[in-house]
Design brief:
A hairpin with a 4-residue loop joins strand 2 and strand 3 (28-31). 16% of the residues lie in helices and 40% in strands. The protein is an alpha+beta fold.
Length: 209
């Protein structure tokens, strides 16, 4: 679960002292997973400053189908997931820290994604892209209908029990397929998530590839 870093030349010695290593093939600095106890010390070199969640390097993509609210055709939809992740938040002393969270969840209202995850979606899931809902950082990432091309807001997929990514029973959860994709470096995003029973149903009953 190595993490890409953007280290200026003048700060390379400092980065190395905090556990960063040099990838000669990609010509970039990174933090290996064995040095994640130094993650806050290298925080300023994380490649996307607006991200607050570091995913596992085995990213889960949840697949399902949904009736487009615009044209009423059935269209594929996806969601980003992870079996564990890190989140930057405030601790009890009002200090920003990275917390390791060891549970499965799906993410929604994603406003920022790292460059290598952007390339992954462009190449594999072109219907998952920015728009139409707007966030403080720009447009949210969302599914787009393969028939009419219009965006499908995450609220239609997550907000209410019984929505496709918010199943309220085991049978509904079996309509979801979870596929795992390995990444050399852990992607990072800024997004919302929850820990409700519906997520547990997906983790237990969705089909995993």
């Amino acid at each position: 679960m190595s993490l890409l870093l953007n280290v200026p030349a003048a700060e390379e010695t400092e980065a190395k002292s905090k556990g960063a290593l040099w990838d000669a093939n990609l010509q970039t600095w990174y933090l290996p997973d064995i040095n994640y106890d130094h993650i806050m010390e290298v925080d300023r070199w994380i490649t996307d400053r607006d991200t607050a969640i570091i995913l596992s390097d085995e990213v889960i993509i949840a697949h399902a189908r949904h009736t487009c609210p615009h044209c009423q055709h059935s269209t594929p939809v996806i969601a980003i997931g992870s079996d564990f992740f890190y989140e930057k938040d405030m601790n009890e002393r009002d200090e920003k820290v990275w917390f390791e969270l060891d549970f499965f969840t799906l993410f929604q209202q994603t406003s920022v994604i790292s460059a290598h995850l952007f390339n992954f979606f462009r190449d594999n899931y072109p219907h998952y892209k920015q728009g139409p809902a707007r966030s403080a950082d720009g447009f949210y990432w969302c599914n787009h209908c393969e028939h009419c091309g219009k965006g499908i807001d995450d609220a239609a997929l997550f907000a209410d029990p019984g929505n496709i990514f918010n199943p309220d029973n085991a049978e509904a959860a079996t309509a979801i397929t979870l596929r795992t994709f390995p990444f050399k470096y852990a992607p990072h995003i800024d997004a919302d998530y929850n820990m409700n029973n519906n997520v547990r149903l997906i983790n237990e009953f969705a089909y995993r590839i």
